[in-house]
Structure formats: C-alpha cells, structure tokens
Design brief:
The complex is a heterodimer of chains A (371) and B (68).
Chain A: E1 3-8, H1 12-22, E2 29-34, H2 37-46, E3 51-55, H3 63-72, E4 78-83, H4 88-97, E5 100-104, H5 109-122, E6 126-129, H6 135-144, E7 149-154, E8 159-165, E9 168-174, E10 177-178, H7 180-187, E11 193-198, H8 213-231, H9 249-263, E12 267-274, E13 280-284, H10 288-306, E14 318-323, E15 327-333, E16 337-344, H11 350-370
Parallel strand pairs in A: 1-2, 1-3, 3-4, 4-5
Antiparallel strand pairs in A: 6-11, 7-8, 7-11, 8-9, 9-10, 12-13, 12-16, 14-15, 15-16
Chain B: H1 3-28, H2 32-37, H3 42-56
The chains are: A alpha+beta (371), B mainly alpha (68).
C-alpha cells in the first residue's frame, strides 16, 4: 500500500524542491505539500497521513501547534519537526511533546530523501487493537524477544510512546508524563490501538527508566491493583505476574549486592529469577541459558517430588549441584522465585554460605517482596 | 519482642521451606525481620497463625511451644 507523506513549510520553493526530489519514490509514498498549519489541518481532516514533516517556525500557527492538534486528534502516524532555530527551549518543547523526531535546517536533499525513504521502509507496520491482545502481554513479548522497538499506543483521548532497547523499556512518554509514570498511564488503557516501529540506533532516546523490565511491570501491576481496589474493578490483564507478590527490584538488587560483598571473588554468577518463565529479575554475570535450564530442573523436581506416590518429600529450602573445576551451584527455592549462586568452592566456605550468608540475603529478599 | 511471630516464621520455614516463608511474608505483609521488632499482640498473632495454618495445611498450635 502506498504511504502518504505531508510536508508543511511556509517556504514555497524549498517545499516544491523537496517534493520534486521525493518523486522518485512514488512507488513507496506520495507527497502532498502545504504552506501553513491551517492548510495542514484541513488536509489532515480529509486524508490520513503516515508521516508529516513540518517546519516549526511559520507565520501564524507554529509547527508545535500542529503537533498539539494532531495529538488531540489521535493522529497515529510519524512526525518529523524541521527547524533552523535549534534553541534549547524549542528543542526541549518538541521533546516534551514526545514521539517527534527533530531535523535541523539546512540539510542536504539527498540525505533528506534517504531519511524519508528509510522511515517508510523501517516501519514494521505491525499494529493491532488493545482489545485483541492486552498491552501487558504485548510488552512482555517484546521483552522476551529482546526487540529494539518503538511502541505507539493510542486511544480516543491519549497517545503515548514506549521505547524498547533490546527488550528493556528505556523511555516512555504520554502527555506531560515521562518515564515509569508514563508506562503506568499507558498500561491502564483498556481500549485503543498500538503500532510497532523499528528503532535505529540514532533514534534511541535518552534513558529515563533505569529499572529492569520485570520491575517496571511489577510496579505497574501494583498500581493497577491499587487502582482496581479504589474503583472496585478487577484487573483482567493479570497475566502471569502474581498480584500478591509485587516486589521492589531495587531492594532485590541490594540482596544481590550483599551476597557479592559477603563472598567476594568466590562468586561466579548469581541470579534471582521468576519460576514462571525462567527470566532473571536481577543478576550478576548473567547466564540466561543456565538460568533457564536450572529453572526447568527445579520446576520438574518440585512437580515430581510433590506428586510422589511413594511418600517422598517435597523440595525444601535449596539444593546443591557439585560441578567440575571446584565449582558448585546452590539453588534457593522461594516458590514463585528462585535464586542461583554459582561459586568457587576453594574460595567460599559452604557452611558459612548456607548458615550465615543465605539467611541474611533471604531476609533482604523478603523485604523486597513485602515492600 | 515478636517472639511468637519469630517462632511462627521458624516453624513455617522448617515445615514448608523458603516457599512457605515467602508466602507468609506476602500474606501478612510483615517480613521476618520486621516481625522480630513487632510486639506480640493477640491480633497480629491470630493473623499469623491463620495464614500459617493455611500454608502448612495443619494447625500451627501443635508446633508452638506451650501450644499458644
């Protein structure tokens, strides 16, 4: 399907030159031009554009007014702002509006043509409705696949953007909200639609969310839970995150740091992961494949032992695996979570680890899950 | 302070592992270290016992010293 591009600038000759230059990509997109925000709004009311490139400073209404108008209309396409006046104030205002790329004038025509062509060819075009797939499920899928993507989410009143870098949410924007606050606001959406876009390295924004994906989701679920209690409504998007066990990821990291400080150089790897999917929430010297294997092993062991008809006993607090080259791994079974500690036996005393260090770090972990 | 609560934590950990202990912490909203600092009021003990009974699938009074 041919995409639709709209260029807005009060410099008529400049715009006509751009249009002429872009004509060679007419099999990918068609280009309309107009010379004021008023004209642009009229065109947007008649036609759906996939990308709008607009100058910021124009007589009458500015490009910023156009962005605000489009937000109110739940415009779902891309927006590139052109400006020759790259003052910090203007740039900050554009950034604040969110989801807008900025290019500085003057620029080379060939560079511009490639940029527009790339925009349309990079666009994955994957989209759907939030009713069909819950937003939380979609975000988890992106996390599992370790994708670098922009997720645009919109309903009748709001529009927001979630930026993923290798599966981690690094930035989110929705109206005036930025970071985690914006994520929580967007996750509350029950209706609307989403679109996914590939993100190039240059388009990855500054990081405003520091905590890992699972932590963001757990905090979001906690807020949703509190919200549903306030409104008396149950949240149906519970997925596999256990609402009872929302944890403070920062405190969990404290527990890992405490372990590192107690056993020092003898520690080779450690991770706390979710039993539901074997994904680490916090880790030192991450080993995702080993964690996935240990998770499967524990879950199988737990299942077989707890269903044993021979009167065998259930899995207790932990189990140990002796490994070659003087290594050992301890798996602490915490129910919905598990904790692996791989260490060098020559450098760590097992008795000290089990009787002093583990009780201490479990106390900290417990603080993390009780908040 | 929190002697009975601490004992309940110990029994649940011995009988149901860390899995049981974490459930007790989440259900009561009180970690073991916080429980140690709390006063053993009848209300909080009753709440802990109720949750512990459910986690263990048996009456925790059987294991508490003096059958509190």
């Amino acid at each position: 399907m041919i995409k639709q591009l709209l260029l807005v600038d009060d410099e008529k000759f400049f715009l006509e030159g751009l249009k002429e230059g872009l004509a060679e990509y007419k099999d990918i997109f068609t280009t309309d031009i107009c010379f004021s925000v008023k004209e642009a709004i009229d065109l947007c009311n008649k036609k759906k554009y996939d990308l709008i490139v607009s100058d910021i400073r124009m007589p009458g209404e500015s490009g910023l007014d156009l962005i605000v108008y489009l937000r109110q209309q739940s415009y779902g396409g891309g927006f590139i702002a052109m400006t020759a006046y790259g003052s910090a104030e203007v740039l900050a205002r554009i950034k604040q509006l969110g989801g807008v790329e900025i290019i500085l004038k003057p620029f080379n025509l060939n560079w511009f043509k490639e940029k527009i062509k790339d925009f349309f060819s990079d666009e994955e075009g994957v989209s759907g409705t939030i009713e069909a797939i819950s937003l939380t499920s979609l975000l988890q899928l992106i996390n599992l696949e370790k994708k670098t993507l922009l997720v645009k989410v919109a309903d009748n009143t709001d529009e927001g953007f979630l930026y993923f870098n290798k599966g981690e949410i690094i930035h989110a924007q929705c109206r005036q909200k930025i970071g985690e606050e914006a994520v929580y606001h967007l996750i509350k959406m029950k209706k609307g639609h989403f679109s996914l876009f590939n993100l190039g390295k240059k388009e990855i924004p500054d990081q405003t969310i520091e905590i890992p994906f699972m932590g963001v989701m757990m905090n979001a679920m906690k807020l949703l839970d509190e919200n549903s209690k306030d409104t008396g409504q149950e949240d149906e998007d519970n997925i596999y995150i256990n609402k009872e066990e929302i944890m403070d990821v920062k405190k969990m990291q404290d527990a890992v740091d405490q372990l590192k400080s107690k056993i020092g150089a003898g520690l080779i790897h450690t991770a706390i992961w979710s039993s539901a999917d074997g994904q680490a929430l916090v880790a030192f010297n991450e080993k995702p494949k080993a964690v996935a294997l240990l998770n499967e092993l524990t879950n199988q062991m737990y299942k077989v032992l707890s269903q044993s008809e021979e009167g065998f006993f259930e899995l207790g607090r932990y189990y140990l695996i002796d490994l070659v080259k003087d290594n050992m791994v301890i798996i602490i079974y915490l129910g919905d979570y598990q904790w692996s500690i791989l260490f060098d036996k020559k450098k760590v005393q097992l008795g000290l680890l089990l009787n002093v260090v583990v009780p201490n770090i479990i106390d900290i972990f417990e603080e993390a899950i009780t908040g | 302070m929190g002697l009975t609560l601490n004992e309940i934590y110990k029994i649940v950990t011995d009988k149901a592992g860390f899995k049981g202990r974490m459930r007790l912490a989440v259900r009561t909203g009180v970690s073991r270290t916080k429980a140690e600092e709390m006063a053993d009021t009848p209300e909080i003990i009753a709440k802990f016992k109720k949750e512990a009974d459910e986690i263990l699938g048996q009456d925790i009074d059987k294991f508490l010293r003096g059958g509190k």
